[in-house]
Amino acid sequence: MDGITNSIVKYRKTIIVFFIILVLICGILSLFVDVNYNLVDYLPKEAQSTMALEIMKEEFDESLPNASVMVKNVSLMEAVEYKEKIASIDGITQVIWLDDMMDITQPLAMGDADTIESFYKDGNALFSISIAKGKEKDACEDIYKLIGEENAIAGEAVDLVGIRDEAETTVVRAFLILLPIIIFILLLTTSSWLEPLLFLLSIGVAVIINMGTSIFLGEVSFITNSISPILQLACSLDYAVFLLHSFQANRKKYASAEEAMARAVKESIPTVAASAATTLFGFLALLFMSFGIGADLGLVLAKGIVLSFISVMVFLPAITLGMTKLIDKTRHREFLSGTKNIGKVLLKIAVPMTIIILIIIVPAFLGQSRTEFLYGNDVLDTASRYSRDRLMIEESFGQSTAIAILVPKGDIAREQQLHEELNEVDHVTGVVSFAGETGAVIPPEFPDEDITKQFYSENYARIIAYADTGSEGDIAFQTVENIHEKAEALYGDGFYTLGRSTNLYDMKKLTEKDNLAVNLIAVAAIFLVLLVTFKSVVLPFILVLAIETGIWINLSIPYFTGTPINFLGYLVLSTIQLGATVDYAILLTNTYLANRKLMPKYEAMKVSLGTAFKSILVSALILSTAGFTLYLTSSNRYTADIGLLLGRGTLLSLTMVVCFLPILLFVFDRAIQRTTYRAEFY
Question: What is the pTM for the complete model shown?
């Protein structure tokens, strides 16, 4: 260890040059990291909708409709003209309208009213269109030019454009708000105007390197791209704070700054490594999600924690030694220094707070498991055109979603039967198929190929059902299940379905499997870290219980308030909150164990709270601020919900550590003494 620390001090100039070069390279590489904005791509290969999508790509020229265009105040013939103009736009592979369902030269009264009103109502025409992957932005812009401001376009493809526009600015907006707040918080607890900048510099270097090295992953999701830099900064900033505080303490003991830094690095590595390990394992637990977005986010965040640790232990000492004189010249009094007596105050409120926690812990545990989830990636900015257009279409035509059913080709009579039975499914407003339009007596070889290719490939027949349910929710998912039942009765397991609602339905099923597995893995991994750290059997249970209680309360709030949350926020938060905030419990417990050897438990806790509270508070304020900043700056539901849950969860973890954990340590004092290696309590 001495050799490593001495080398860091000795070769500090070389280290600084190396990191500068690495940051420049990674900064450039980060500009070329591909970002994926479609979460459907992260569904596992064995998911029903994923297999259906692969078949669709291989077998059919046109994809499933993924957007709707509404043109107001048009006649039937004018609508046909708009249909032709939309179809001519680059990137549009298919346009479906009323004339595909019936002969519009005949009186409309002769057709099915529900079908007609799904496409033409009160003089407004609604077109179902398919936009090719990668062409969404340009195609939408051309459609906007064609239809003008008074008409509307909405759907999955449009949402992707909105998400892309929003995600590209989220990180910048968040950092512009977050950095001044972090600097202000750090200034309150440091004794030099320069120290906060050194903290941010060391972690900022790690963030840039992390972003640049993601190029070797091929691509990252827009969620990972948006939140990982902020979470990495917030979760690892206290590593830098701990090292520099240790450096300042050792400068009083050693004659030279070099000796003080070498000692500080040696002292800090075990503590910071333990802190980083809990966060690291919390992030790595996400890799075990069936839904690939977990591995995407977990890997980048885990990589970021490792890089932050290296940067703090290698780069920060080097740059700090080069600025020691400047640090000394920029000294100021510590603004937040009166916390040593906070222990007495916290212990006074700990008992009533614990009683409240014990009252709500069971309802919170039960409530968090009953939270209603959302699975879509809607844009929350109601002022945007994306939201306005969606509401305009829903007001005129109601909610609508398209579901494609792929069945083996060759039995047109069975296709017609399925067509008819799908029309009987609740909330299905229309069905488009070859058999349904021509009847079972006309073989597909007879009509023109341009007509049949919409419905038939070499191996499959395609039937499209339109439902008035929207893309998610109990009714939407029940409709998907009803469609599955009809298809299964006729084709067994030889059918496939796809569409936005089926994608979200598959996400729902995966979430139900991932919730328990991911949480158990995270808890088990962090439990082992705590077991090794404290060499105690009882303490890991106590610390995990304290933080998990905060998590249960946090995740139960949406249930008791009747507010659904995005499923990804729920999955990710439980691991992030546990991994990132258990450090607060570790710091307090370590301090308490040291003091407990010297004094009775009450006095030991009072002193420990006074010693550790400031560090815990600063770390929690930074992480909580990062979460709330994501919530306030992002109009995407995935990112916003993660931010809200993280911000609120961090404050709850802080409360658990300073109010609930002390009482647990008191109650289990004797058990801790008996099951902890060399406890040596007073």
Answer: 0.85
CATH number of the structural domain spanning residue 405? 3.30.70.1380
Domain that holds residue 90: 67-154
Give the C-alpha separation, 458 to 481, whole Å. 27
Q: Which amino acid is at 363?
A: P
Residues comprising the chain, all counted: 682
Does residue 105 share a domain with residue 208?
A: no
What is the C-alpha to C-alpha distance for residues 295 and 145, in angstroms, rounded to an integer? 40
d(CA 287, CA 303): 12
Burial class (CB in 10 A: 0-12, 13-18, 19+), 384: middle
Q: Dig out the tokens for 30 from the structure.
A: 């980060």
The residues, ordered by sequence, that sit 6+ positions from 679 with a Cβ below 8 Å of its Cβ are: 536, 593, 596, 597, 672, 673
Question: Burial letters for 201-234: b for 16+ Cβ neighbours within 10 Å, e otherwise?
Answer: bbbbbbbbbbbbbbbeeeebbbbbbbbbbbbbbb
Phi, psi of 290 (to 5 degrees): -65, -35
Name residue 126's amino acid: L
Is residue 185 in some structural domain?
Answer: no
Nearest in space to 39 (alpha carbons), one of 297, 384, 394, 389: 297
How many structural domains comprise the chain? 4
Per-residue pLDDT band at 437 (split at 50, 70, 90): low
Mean of per-residue pLDDT scores for the chain: 87
Question: CATH number of the domain that 149 lies in?
Answer: 3.30.70
